[in-house]
Design brief:
alpha+beta; eleven-stranded mixed β-sheet; two-stranded antiparallel ribbon; globular
Length: 494
């Protein structure tokens, strides 16, 4: 017979474990799950099962996860993991954006042209996550070729905003944001060219970081020196995001822009942060972009909170007056170089916005590219001059709250009418030109009961300072405590 104290210990451990299972692991934050794995109070199999069950329960309502491992693949995944608890993610499940290749996993890029594509090799982002203990369990929905900030395509259909399923989840990382908001996973990869990570993060009430180019290696690419597009972490809150950032940062010689980054853990340095008072610039519109009145009101209220926390704010910002010309030119050039071969295929299988972006580059001259690069150099110089004085810049993550999902893109804001699907994204795309890290989080709710919010911008390579400040704001906003949610905002957070 066991000694009495051993029996007590056994019963206590059994009840503790049953209590964890009853509460459902998917409701807990990633930091809590990792601690329980470390303490051997839960297994990787239980964590994985909780995530997969949640996906099967909720995903049919919002269509965020478009490819999922089956039972045989789950067993192979668990058996192949070496159970190293010293890895960063310790075997936790991760969802990958459907723009990133995962070996032997269906990867469509949101296009019917690639509906049956199974890559023979994972890309650098996926390899890095797996090396750091992440288990890839599925792919998240995107717009076709990640073009635009509304997640729908002809292969998988529409991803709905879980707070209000009549609204857009944003994009192009809309599937990732919606999956995180509903507890399908703790971590999801995103990417960002002109706001593709920041917009959906704030619209779904989660957190997304566009990092400094080179901090997170990516590729392979036929366009490896183009630094406008970056990959970045997405999570339910800033603390969990810092964990996933640790798992995505690496140096990889196969990415020519890859840098060595910080030697310390962003997560550990987040936990021991010291509160500081900052000088912060802000703008609703850079003096040139239209902005919905709900967004202007959100900015006003958010800035009042920033002031109440003891920071000094000033309506000062870099000059972005030529940013749209610059971004649209460079984006069209990138689309032409990357996707021009698509025009030789069946055009009926390609959405018109992608074709428009490819064709737009045909009219671009060498002088246009030269001018765009000069403009970008000027924007960068002016931004660095701004950061000589200011610690951060606060800007809306989008000029509108989440819009009706039946619309393809935003056509009019205030007195400005847009004739293309990129122009309404310029409040985020202008920041992409600066190579500055930017973190997006929700700070308010729209009249349609969906989150929306801000992006906080810091100087290049100041990710630690940025996420520490974002954490201090998040602690004074209760939106992250309402994640994960049931569909249409039935709060079930424990």
């Amino acid at each position: 017979l066991l000694p009495f104290f051993d029996i007590q210990s056994y019963i206590k451990e059994w009840f503790f474990k049953m209590n964890i299972e009853t509460k459902s692991l998917w409701k807990k934050n990633a930091s809590e799950i990792l601690a329980l794995i470390d303490e051997k109070k839960i297994s990787i199999e239980e964590v994985l099962e909780s995530s997969l069950n949640r996906i099967k329960e909720i995903n049919p309502d919002i269509n965020a996860v478009v490819t999922l491992i089956n039972e045989d693949e789950k067993k192979r995944l668990i058996n192949s993991f070496d159970n190293r608890t010293d890895s960063i993610l310790k075997g936790m499940p991760v969802l990958i954006k459907d723009m990133n290749d995962v070996k032997d996993m269906r990867t469509t890029y949101g296009s019917k042209l690639y509906a049956d594509h199974f890559p023979k090799k994972s890309d650098i982002v996926v390899q890095t996550i797996e090396k750091n203990g992440g288990l890839i369990i599925g792919k998240t929905n995107i717009p076709e070729f990640a073009a635009g900030s509304h997640t729908y395509n002809s292969v998988f259909g529409l991803t709905k905003n879980p707070w209000n399923t009549l609204l857009s989840a944003g994009g192009s990382s809309g599937g990732a944001a919606a999956a995180l908001a509903t507890g399908m996973s703790w971590f999801a990869s995103g990417s960002d060219l002109g706001g593709s990570l920041r917009n959906p993060a704030s619209w779904c009430g989660v957190v997304g970081l566009r990092p400094t180019s080179g901090l997170i290696p990516h590729g392979p690419s036929n366009f490896p020196f183009f630094n406008l597009s970056v990959d970045g972490p997405m999570a339910r809150n800033v603390e969990d995001l810092s964990i996933f950032l640790d798992a995505m940062v690496s140096h990889n010689k196969n990415d020519p822009l890859s840098s060595r980054g910080a030697s310390n853990s962003y997560y550990r340095n987040l936990l021991k942060r010291e509160d500081a008072k900052y000088l912060i610039g802000f703008t609703d519109d850079f003096g040139i972009f239209p902005c919905d009145k709900e967004v202007r009101s959100m900015m006003h209220n958010t800035l009042k909170l920033v002031q109440n926390l003891g920071h000094e704010i000033s309506n000062t910002y870099p000059d972005m007056s030529k940013s749209e010309y610059c971004f649209q030119t460079l984006r069209a050039y990138m689309f032409y170089c990357t996707y021009k071969s698509l025009l030789k295929k069946d055009k009926s299988l390609i959405k018109e916005e992608v074709i428009w972006n490819i064709n737009k580059a045909k009219a671009i001259t060498i002088d246009d590219l030269l001018e765009a690069e000069k403009v970008r150099a000027g924007i960068y110089a002016d931004t660095m001059k701004f950061f000589d004085k200011f610690d951060f810049l606060i800007v809306p993550s989008s000029i509108v709250p989440p819009f009706n999902s039946q619309n393809k893109w935003v056509k009019k804001v205030e007195d400005t009418t847009f004739d293309n699907y990129v122009s309404w994204l310029m409040i985020a795309a202008s920041i992409s030109l600066t190579n500055c890290p930017s973190i997006a989080l929700a700070t308010s709710f729209s009249k349609d009961n969906a989150p929306f919010g801000i992006q906080i911008v810091a100087p290049p390579h100041e990710e630690q300072k940025l996420i520490n400040f974002a954490k201090s704001l998040e602690e004074n906003i209760n939106i992250s405590d309402m994640v994960p949610i049931n569909i249409n905002n039935e709060n079930i957070r424990v």
